[in-house]
Amino acid sequence: MLHQRIEVPVRETVSGVWLVIPGFNEGAVIGRTIGSVAHWLPNVVVVDDGSSDDTARAAEGAGAHVVRHCINLGQGAALATGIRYALLRGARAIITFDADGQHRPEDIDVLIETADESGADVVLGSRFLGGTVDMPASRRWLLRAATLYTRFTSGLRLTDAHNGLRLFTRAAAEQMRIRQNRMAHASELVNWLAASHLKVVEAPVDIVYTDYTLAKGQSAFSSINILWDLWSSRLHR
Amino acid sequence: MIKLPLILGLAFFAFYGWRQRRVSPVIGVAMPLVSLLGIALVLWPQWAQEAAGLLGIGRGADLILYVWTVVSLLLLANLHFRLRGQAALITTLTRELAILEARLRDG
Fold first, then answer.
1. pTM for this structure?
2. Can you tell me the ipTM of this complex?
3. What are the chain B neighbours of A67 within 8 Å (beta carbons)?
């Protein structure tokens, strides 16, 4: 059954747009990240995924709503928690945003604009459509390989399958089920979108690569873990 | 001399497995079956040799080793899937607790 796209443009209900930021030991940067997005969206929820540092306190101090996992579950689980919280608070649309400062706050506007112009249910940020600079060659090849793999397994022709900047309308977010607690949730999400009747578009966004974001990012070895999580999950649906 | 403690030990596991059948049907069936098979082989060790001959394996000890390997892997897989189920429950509990706390703070 096809669902109905929300009739009111996302831009006209910015007070109903929630930004979901999963964070694990991001105390050093989370305050700055929240400060940078406050101008764009009033509702920010940080899911502190069992951090051992002061991530939760820093996020609260910066004015965000904080939902705190008492144990570390992983980024996928933190996103699912944040999305559920935002839905309970009446969110009309949800944007996911990484805590480490790799996304540009102005790209929030790009996602909202794209959602309204295209009438899409889901807008996925793509660094390969944007003007991302300073991306290390190894990271570029790793992401290209991941995108090809995701295209092959899902059939969805995306240019960037693992970008944390995404917009979901409420109707899309309500249908979403993230079962992968760790990093495999990104591929799981694409597979789910491919199987759904939702309209999905990509929007050009930039990623800011710094020593901090690169250290927090995924390595080639992590991609093996992600593949294992995806394959093993097929054994016990 | 060793046969009596072996039989008692295997009988205990057969009983324990049977008691677990409601919690874990796989354990409830597999553990008593394997234990009873073990008791039979303790009492009549020539059965292993005869079965191995029929299957073209050669030695009864080899047959037991192969069967044991397969059974162990099946039980490990069962344990793994149960752990995944437990992890999913922990995720749900952690999420609900976190949201409840946040909602209480929100007022």
1. 0.82
2. 0.84
3. 98-99, 101-102
